Amino acid sequence: MTGATQTDVPAISVRGITVGFGDKIILENLDLDVRRGEVLGFVGGSGTGKSVLTRTVLGLVKQRAGTIEVFGRNLAELSRAEHRAMERRWGVLFQHGALFSSLTMRQNIQVPMREYLDLSQGLMDELAMLKIRMVGLNPDAAEKFPSELSGGMIKRAALARALALDPEILFLDEPTSGLDPIGAAEFDQLIATLQKTLGLTVFMVTHDLDSLYSICDRVAALADKKIVAAGTVEEILAVQHPWVQAYFHGERALRRDGATAA
Asked: In this structure, are residues 25 and 17 in contact, taking their beta carbons and an 8 Å threshold?
């Protein structure tokens, strides 16, 4: 990348990615860039491979072809130690929180710290409490188990764990699913505030049109096993692909626009 500065390099650059399971190809020759410091909303129909792409970038699913670069480094060329160092630079919030049921909220948040850092218990406790406050939870909830938390609290606890290592990239998989409209709007605002305050790059898989309109700088749409459109919401609205048209101009979108106008 001749003449490019470090800030010109995308946080994530995916080129020619193909992923399949058995005879079924999920993603084929897919290209996508996630720019540094942006909130990118990633949309697509159910079962089209949105979470598969996320898991492929994270190294949880192996691609059959293509390259993935994070901060300009080809992940396939990293040594094990270099890859672990790269993993410390991202945090992940899985769709249903994926908290360990046998651990308290505080202990869940400390899981990445125990895996990647060498800290005293006292310091980990202090850091966990900081993350709990950062996501807007009452410190009294620290010793509660996931079964004692509401759906919204589980999302925030999972977000606190994703932030445990002070990541530069935040992966969010359906962060507002299962939340009522008020809770979803509050969670969107929390993500926006944290992104601006911490300078995060956010890759957000979502079905939530309100999230796309309220906090996303750009949107990428997945259909036909590849990215068929990427740009601002306004730019995406003009794309003529059938799925994009159905998603952004269909009945659900019309209901949203009607509610917004009211």
From this structure: no
pTM for the model stands at: 0.90
The secondary structure of residue 77, as a DSSP letter, is G
Nearest to 156 by CA among 186, 130, 126, 136: 136
Residue 20: DSSP 8-state: E
Closest CA to 14 of 54, 77, 69: 69
| 3-state SS, residue 13 | strand
Q: What does the pLDDT look like over 92-122, one tens digit per residue?
A: 998 776 899 999 999 999 999 999 999 999 9
Residue 60 Cα distances to 55, 87, 198, 253, angstroms:
5, 12, 26, 33
pLDDT tens, position by position, 127-147? 999 999 999 999 999 999 999
Please count the CA atoms within 13 angstroms of the CA of 64 that sit on its side-chain side. Answer: 14
